[in-house]
Amino acid sequence: MSGGANVPVAEQAGLPRTGEHGALSCGKALSFSKEARAELDRLLTRYPTKQAALLPTLWLAQKEWGWISREAVDAVASLLGLAPAFVWGVVTFYTMYNRAPVGKHLIQVCTSISCHLNGAEEVFHECKKRLGGLKTGETSKDGKYTVIEVECLAQCDKAPAVMVNDDDYAVITKDNLDAFLKGLG
Ligand code: FES
Question: CA-CA distance, 149 to 128, in Å (whole number)?
Answer without folding.
Answer: 11
